[in-house]
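Predicting holo structure, zinc ion bound.
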Amino acid sequence: MAPDDENHAEQWPLPPSWMWSCQECTELYKQMKGAIEASVAARSAAGPGVDYDPMDIVLTKQLRLARHIALTHAPDVPDVDPECARCVSDAATRPDADEFVLEHRARHLFMPPIVAGLM
Ligand SMILES: [Zn+2]
Ligand SMILES: [Zn+2]
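Done. Tokens:
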């Protein structure tokens, strides 16, 4: 493993080119990234100890993008990631074409593996 790969699990992947040729993917992705930046800014402005979680907005945006990909781009959803516990347990307990399975795997396209596995 190269030193650059050490934080691979936490790095935001570059979405595949087919996402950029879909207007809805592009729009939803931009909204999600915008919500993340707004959330980081709000968090540092609010300071520690403030009970305010703008990550809810990010969650909503990424769910919409994952759902859109699962419904519209099902053939482009990646295969099971053997290093992702959620992928592995889904593969063992749910049918392959299950909407929830596809939604989860779609997240691997545009989210860091560590985040995709948690949500
Ligand atoms: Zn799309
Ligand atoms: Zn996974």
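The pocket of zinc ion (ligand 2) is lined by residues 81, 84, 86-87, 104-105, 108, 116-117 (CB under 6 Å).
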